[in-house]
UniProtKB/TrEMBL annotation:
Cell location: Secreted, Extracellular space, Extracellular matrix
Family (UniProt): Belongs to the glycosyl hydrolase 51 family.
GO terms classed as biological process: L-arabinose metabolic process
Main location group: secreted
Source organism superkingdom: Eukaryota
SUPFAM superfamilies: (Trans)glycosidases, Galactose-binding domain-like
Reactions catalysed: Hydrolysis of terminal non-reducing alpha-L-arabinofuranoside residues in alpha-L-arabinosides
Enzyme Commission number: 3.2.1.55
GO MF, one annotated term: alpha-L-arabinofuranosidase activity
Official protein name in the record: non-reducing end alpha-L-arabinofuranosidase
Protein species of origin: Nicotiana sylvestris
Domain Alpha-L-arabinofuranosidase C-terminal: 472-660
Keywords: Extracellular matrix, Glycoprotein, Hydrolase, Secreted, Signal
Length: 686
């Protein structure tokens, strides 16, 4: 794709001259080389030459922020995913703040002769007034006896709660009753028969709303568990704001450990949040409003994410997203609503209240603990400001009639208050200059595999001066993607190699979407798929592992020459391994074709003897079928495989398998010797 597209084979009139020329070319491209990282015994029907100039004069430092992640509340990525809250619809508000409200997925234990369940607008919380009324008609004695265990309600969480033996879970709920209460609260299997943990709550004076906290320790394991609230005493009990959180979330910050660990392993330079279309809303009344998502969790009203059509209690709110970025050691990029949804818009003349709302949000993140909004952040446990340096004004709104007017209002106000903050426009400037000021411009690409691969050179002619590109959403989409195919990952890898080569015009790039709950595929494919108890990375997730060292690395000049270069793309960088403190030269090559390729790598510009003969590795992402996917049954069917490279020199002959992504790490300055790893070794432990 880059460099010469065709090799000019020798065209001499004399047979002897033609033979000599072709012999020289065969030597040049190393059709027959030794087995180690070679083509020995392989019928390589394509040949290519990669020239790498490792001299400092031809090198260029890439942005420290080049590759990161994008989190959107889609596919139950947060609610029922990364955010570890086990209760779905904890405030009984999922039907909206109306009466009567929907209590799904809460269900009734008992029949109509023993219990009546309804909702009332009687909560003690002003911003979420719906409460659950449970009228127990039976009793533990007398003519109308309750069934064994009593009656009440249960919550199955998000398609089952993962309860594990020996682990502890914090249950919090609010309750009131005119009589004394005797409740059995417990964790059971999906049908209620298997008892995992039970605690009896007895209270005599709960005529006013009373907060109850219970610690449950599981005596068994079941990934499809549920929480039960039962009573065998006749009377009326009101419940509200029921929460069940595992005690072992990451640093106690509420993030599910295994999913957080998979993010951390990518070493993201940034995290864009909280959307996406989730930010816009189908209608402005359902847009993400940061002020509604801070403070005590039980006071947050929650809202309907009407684009992806599910309720979120907003336990994962503005504060938690900023905390997530800090825990990931990633820069936060806040995408906020600019008065535009999919179906309605605020006229620029009336947008100033929304501008002030965003200025307040910036003060919440960056203000001192003595400021109005900074003090609220401090009260939530973070007295020091968050390192918020980037904001995006809207999402995919460039073609909306009010966007430019609204954008300029936000831009001017933010730059006046926080001149250092970099502002991202929704309008593409890769081919045409913007008609408004911006520090970066947003670029999204979802398409078939061939198109995504071909877009590796999209930014070749993009302006190097002015706003830089932020490719905040890229992925193969449609039939080529499946639920996460090798084909998609290879196309995306080729695209990212193009991003590396154009990193003087591109400052950031992130894959989308990040997460998918296996029970709610609103968008395919995604980087990480999970259930309540399991998770795996798709090939696109593993592909990103081979780019995580590129942040702040040095890009080397490289030229690829091939007789079919439309299916090949390569880059070369130098990077320092923070684990062994060694410096490596990494060469990445995507073979997007169906033929085996014999590749000769020729490296120039190195200091004498700086390329070590040991410590080199080869990492390959491929499979037997280009549409292969990972699954819960075979989670690493398509994942990187690393082997040692035994023979290293400035002129190397290697073989590229059909439909493969290969990375070579060559040791430059040795301090310690690196050992080989498998895909699991690419993930850090936390």
């Amino acid at each position: 794709m880059l460099g010469s597209r065709n090799i000019e084979w020798c065209e001499k009139d004399m047979d002897s001259s033609r033979s000599l020329c072709c012999i020289l070319l065969l030597v040049l491209f190393g059709i027959s080389v030794q087995y180690q990282c070679s083509a020995s015994g392989i019928d390589a029907n394509e040949t290519a030459l990669l020239l790498v100039n490792a001299s400092e004069a031809s090198a260029r430092k890439m942005p420290d922020t080049l590759f990161g992640i994008f989190f959107e509340e889609i596919n139950h990525a947060g609610a029922g995913g990364l955010w570890a809250e086990l209760i779905s619809n904890r405030g009984f508000e999922s039907g909206g703040h109306n009466f009567p409200s929907s209590i799904e997925p809460w269900s009734i234990i008992g029949d109509e002769s023993s219990v009546i369940v309804s909702t009332e607008l009687s909560s003690c919380f002003d911003r979420n007034k719906v409460a659950l009324r449970v009228q127990v008609l039976c009793d533990s004695k007398g003519a109308k006896l309750c069934p064994d265990g009593g009656v009440g309600v249960y919550n199955p969480g998000f398609w089952g709660m993962n309860i594990e033996q020996g682990k502890r879970y914090k249950l919090v709920f609010y309750v009131r009753s005119q009589e004394s209460i005797n409740l059995s609260v417990g964790l059971t299997g999906s049908n209620g028969l298997k008892k995992l943990a039970t605690v009896v709550v007895v209270a005599a004076n709960v005529s006013n709303w009373t907060k109850v906290e219970v610690l449950l320790e599981a005596e068994g394991t079941d990934p499809n568990s549920r929480l039960e609230l039962r009573s065998a005493t006749k009377g009326v009990i009101w419940f509200d704001q029921v929460s069940l959180m595992p005690m072992d979330t990451y640093k106690g910050h509420g993030f599910r450990k295994d999913l957080f660990g998979m993010l951390k392993a990518l070493k993201p330079a940034f995290i864009r949040f909280p959307g996406g279309c989730f930010v816009e809303g189908g209608w402005l009344r359902n847009a993400f409003r940061w002020k509604e998502t801070i403070g005590p969790w039980e006071e947050r009203p929650g809202h309907l994410g009407d684009v992806w059509n599910y309720w979120t209690d907003d336990g994962l709110g503005h504060f938690e997203f900023l905390q997530l970025a800090e825990d990931l050691d990633a820069l936060p990029i806040w995408v906020f609503n600019n008065g535009i949804s999919h179906n309605d818009q605020v006229d620029t003349f009336h947008v100033l209240p929304l501008v002030q709302e965003i200025l307040d949000g910036l003060e919440f993140a960056r203000g001192g603990s003595d400021s109005k909004w900074g003090s609220i952040r401090a009260a939530m446990g973070h007295p020091e400001p968050f390192d918020l340096r980037y904001v995006a004004i809207g999402n995919e709104d460039c073609d909306k009639t009010q966007y430019r007017g609204n954008y300029l209002k936000f831009y001017s106000a933010i730059k006046e208050a926080y001149p250092d903050i970099k502002i991202i426009s929704n309008c593409d400037a890769s081919a045409k200059a913007l008609d408004h000021p911006a520090d970066l411009y947003d670029f999204h690409i979802y398409d078939n595999a061939s198109t995504v691969f071909s877009l590796a050179n999209h930014f070749d002619d993009a302006p190097r001066n002015g706003p830089k590109a932020f490719i905040s959403e890229y992925a193969v989409h449609g039939n080529d993607a499946g639920k996460g195919s090798l084909l998609a990952a290879l196309a995306e890898a080729g695209f990212l190699i193009g991003v590396e080569k154009n990193s003087d015009a591109v400052e950031m790039a992130s894959y989308a979407p990040l997460f998918a709950n296996n029970n709610d595929w609103m968008w395919k494919a995604d980087a990480i798929v999970f259930t309540s108890s399991q998770a795996y990375g798709t090939p696109s997730y593993w592909m990103q592992h081979l780019f995580k060292e590129s942040n702040g690395a040095t890009l080397l000049s490289s030229t690829l020459q091939a007789n079919s270069s439309d299916s090949l793309i390569a880059s070369a960088i130098t990077w320092r391994n923070e684990i062994d403190d060694n410096e490596y030269l990494r060469i990445k090559v995507v073979n997007f074709g169906s033929s085996t390729v014999a590749l000769k790598i020729s490296i120039s510009g190195l200091e004498q003897n700086s390329l070590q003969s040991f410590g080199a590795t080869k990492t390959t992402l491929t499979s037997t079928n280009v549409m292969d996917e990972n699954s819960f049954e075979d989670p690493k069917k398509v994942s990187p495989v690393e082997t040692l490279v035994k023979q290293v020199s400035e002129n190397m002959d290697v073989v590229l398998s059909p439909y493969s992504f290969t990375s070579f790490d060559l040791l430059r300055k040795s301090i310690s010797i690196r050992t080989t790893t498998t895909a699991s070794g690419l993930e850090s432990s936390f």
